[in-house]
Amino acid sequence: MKQIPESHADILEKPAFAHLSTLMPDGSPQSSAVWVDTDGPTILVNTAEGRLKDRNVRRDPRVAISVTDPENPYRSLMIRGRVAKITNEGADEHINRMAKKYMGVDEYPFRQPGEVRVLYFIEPVRVAAMG
């Protein structure tokens, strides 16, 4: 597993929107804007079960993430990796923490009836930093 360079690790602590790319059944890429987090060595992404990216990741765990520093658009991280763990455990609490980070609210406001949150733990395989 590759490490995020210390020089750019702070980007993941900021409310920086990331783009998560997954692979469709035919091999074509699919990209979604996501909130991003880290627990140190792994990247965390929270979504809802059954969404397109969720179906893609469960079929093929290879992903790519690009994230740009919201304070300097010439400073960014490009990460290729694999989803090493998928869990519902802690996903509800995590999405509320992300709502606080990104929106300044205590509870995620976009929950849909019957929605089940899921948390991806992504292990970086290749990391490039720019700026």
Low-confidence stretches: none
| Lateral arrangement of strands in the main beta sheet | 2-1-5-6-7-4-3
Rg, rounded, reads 14 Å
CATH class term: Mainly Beta
State the end-to-end distance: 22 Å
Class from secondary-structure proportions: alpha+beta
- Our count of helices gives 2
Secondary-structure element series: EEEEHEEHE
Strand content: 35-45%
The name CATH uses for the topology is Pnp Oxidase, Chain A
What is the total domain count? Answer: 1
How many strands, what sense, and barrel or not for the largest sheet? 7 strands, antiparallel
User: Whole-number average pLDDT?
Assistant: 97
CATH architecture: Roll
* Count of beta strands: 7
How does the overall form come out from the CA principal axes? globular
The percent range for helix content is: 10-25%
Please explain how this structure is put together.
The chain has 131 residues and is α+β, with helices and mostly antiparallel strands. The chain has a single domain, classed as Electron Transport, Fmn-binding Protein, Chain A (Pnp Oxidase, Chain A, Roll). Helix content is 16%, strand content 40%. The chain has two helices and seven strands. A seven-stranded antiparallel beta sheet has the order 2-1-5-6-7-4-3. The longest helix has 13 residues. The relative contact order is 0.26. The mean pLDDT is 97.
